[in-house]
Amino acid sequence: MNRTEDFKRRVGAVFLPQADAVDVPDDDAGALALLAAPPVPPPVPLPKPPIRICRTTLKQGCYTLAFTPAPATIFSTRFRGTLRVEQQANGRMRFSGDLYSYRWFDHIKPPFPVMTDEAADTGGAIPIYTRRSYFAYLKGTSARMSALVPAGKPCTFSLSFDQFNYNQPATGFSGSFNPAPTRSVRFDFTTTTTPGLYNGTAFLGSTPIGSVSIRWVSDKYRKANVNLHTLKGAVAPPASVAGSTMETIFADVGWGVTYNDGGQINLPSSLSSVNINSCWSQANLHTLMQSVPGYNPAALDSAWNVQLVAVPAQLGCSRGIMFDSGPGDLDRIPREGSATFSHDGYPANEVPDGMGGSHYDSAANKQQKDVPRAYLRSATHEIGHAFNQIHQNFEAGLDNSIMSPTPSVAEVLGLTGTFPNDIALRFNDTVKGHLRHLPDPAVRPGAMEFFGSTVSAPQAADVAWLDGLDMEVTTDVDRVALGQPVQLSWTLTNNGQLPIPAPSTLDVETQQARVSVTDPLGHVTFMRTPALDACPHLELIELAPGESIKGSTTLYWGTDGFAFEVPGHHVVDVIGLWDAQGTPIGAQGETHVFVTYPQGNENEVAALLLHPDVGRAVATGALQGKAQERIGRAQKLSGEHAATEALQRIGIAGKPKRPSRAKRKK
Fold first, then answer.
1. Could you report how far apart the first and last alpha carbons of the chain are, in Å?
2. Is pLDDT above 50 for 365?
3. Which of 195, 323, 344, 536 is most buried, most CB within 10 Å of its CB?
């Protein structure tokens, strides 16, 4: 397979629309030209009303948004949402919006309130809508804020958008956006006598398609709650460091974050066997989150809530984690919870300075609870993951900002300052742009799953495919039955003459290895693991000539689908992809698998096993939903089927129960 063919699909690139800054002219050139042109006397002199150029400046922050398609009845679907406006330097503006569907008829209850299609006055509060009603993202593309109007008439302006409809999943809320916009629309507004309220008409090209209204409600773009609970034996992150708090850090982004300290909590009885001073599993952290007072995942439809739990752990546990992803997401409601580890910290050998010391400087070998500035930064970093933000080595490059990994911040400060005194308690401009203008489902907790570095996958043309860097891909079998897991392995070898920078690990959990399967019809399925590491510690090594790095996975199911769903010839592709000083480096290899045509009851076995609950069980090693029941039924149908035997080998299925000798004689 050509290295660059279908590259975006094969590396699992996630498309998220996001508004960019647009130029807003200072005036209307056409209007100025008209005013400057010499008058043409009409055949019959008529009174000429005065004309003026009117310019509108929108206040920065959040507006409520109402769009009513025409024609509209009481039974029609309408749309409510928010519009975010960011005024930038040099007359530029960045704006984006989200639409949620609703119907008046569904909400008419005594005492029958008056219904209106005008953007609601929420008294300064940013509205929150249900995840299931999310409809579309509006990416601002151009703005005309000045117009020629008769004296005494209200000002007019227009905003243009590319509309991206959201592909809502059948279950859950983690959908997707297509790369091409659904349509392009223009909203023409007129000012009103109410400050901050603008009414107008929506257009598709030159055709009016309904009425639209916006109303300014807040100088913040979005709002959320961070709810802290501290396990007895742990120490909470500091509420304030040199005037900086989690609330002020997010205020710098333009978010209104309310930080609620729920105090200490006891270890629930279901975790009585857990050593709180060891590294915690994601599943145990999720169980702890579910025990905190007031925890209610249904509330995510009325508030953006993130639960932060502080536990002791110990040095070497990676300081914290956004655990509500992959195997740790026990209820499949992503990004509700993050954890911070008070007794973990900054091992000196994690970032050595090469001179017998550490870039952690005075914090070396100390615990987080004893380094307040670094502890606040680390806890906020995990909250950033809960809002679906990724490590900055995948985007803007490593820097001294909150979404860069702690060891990388220490390395940066090894050149420009000291750790922890010079830690910047802020998000960089790239992350600020995401938090302000990504679609709601991409950032709000409980919506889209954590997407990791696939959201910033490079273009194929930008990848360096180094000579001598070879990827060998193998499977334990080359002929499989429908529903059968396959053990996939790969080996990256430097067959060149010089050392090459390469990752110390090459696995799907860190997305350093990307696995895809192309079926007989040419359809590509990226094997997106549900066990994605939200906060990986990535280390580059010098891969010497002749040296190799190995990786493996069970090839069966990913959140984008199954590897083998149809009989015939399949191409299994592995792409190693990593960044070395700003340059993406890649290595690719493939192997071939033939899926046999089912015979006898093999169709029934495949129908039972090719189900997402079984797939997730194989991918995570945890039996959830109806996986156990389906596997048991498949074993009864054919205990010696290649698929059920493979499930036994990997430990997902036990040995099938055989009938007793007496029953067999009958």
1. 56
2. yes
3. 323
Distance CA 393, CA 378 (A): 16
Per-residue pLDDT, 115: 61
Q: Is the pLDDT of residue 436 over 90?
A: yes
* pLDDT at position 210: 97
Closest-CA residue to 494 (of 422, 542, 443): 542
Contact 656, 605 (CB under 8 A): no
Report residue 414 as tokens. Answer: 């090894």
Q: Which residue has the tokens 């509060």?
A: 125
Query: In the prediction, which pLDDT does 130 show?
Result: 97
Distance separating alpha carbons of residues 406 and 316, to the nearest angstrom: 13
Could you write out the DSSP letters of every residue in 278-333?
SPPPHHHHHHHHHTSTT--GGGGGTS-EEEEEEE---TTS-SEE--SSGGG-TTS-
Task: Please list the residues that pair with 311 across neighbouring strands.
Answer: 341
Instruction: Report d(CA 320, CA 398) in Å as an integer.
Output: 19
**Cβ atoms within 10 A of the Cβ of 348, count?**
17
Query: How many of the other CB atoms lie within 10 Å of CB of 375?
Result: 28
183-212 tens-digit pLDDT: 999 999 999 999 999 999 999 999 999 999
What 3-state class would DSSP assign to 437? Answer: helix
Q: In what order do the strands lie in the sheet with 486-494?
A: 469-475, 486-494, 548-555
Question: Cβ(473)–Cβ(527) under 8 Å?
Answer: no
Work out the number of other CB atoms within 10 angstroms of the CB of residue 347.
16
User: What is the rounded CA–CA span in Å between residue 182 and residue 439?
Assistant: 15
pLDDT tens track for 382-435:
999 999 999 998 888 889 999 999 999 999 999 999 999 999 999 999 999 999
What are the structural domains of the chain? Answer: 22-39+49-218 (2.40.128.120), 222-450 (3.40.390.10), 458-595 (2.60.40.10), 602-665 (no CATH)
Model confidence at 515: pLDDT above 90: yes
The band of 502, judged by pLDDT with boundaries at 50, 70 and 90, is: very high
- In degrees and rounded to multiples of 5, residue 30 shows phi and psi of -65, -40
Q: Which two tokens stand for residue 386?
A: 């809960």
pLDDT beyond 50 at 665? no
Residue 657 pLDDT class (50, 70, 90 cuts): low
Mean pLDDT of 572-598: 93
Please give the pLDDT value at position 152.
81
Per DSSP, the residues of 340-391 read EETT-B--GGGSB-SSSSBTTGGGTT-BGGG-HHHHHHHHHHHHHHHTT---
Distance (Å, whole) CA 97 – CA 439: 8
Beta strands 134-144 and 156-167 are antiparallel
> Angle at which helices 627-637 and 602-609 pack, to 10 degrees?
170
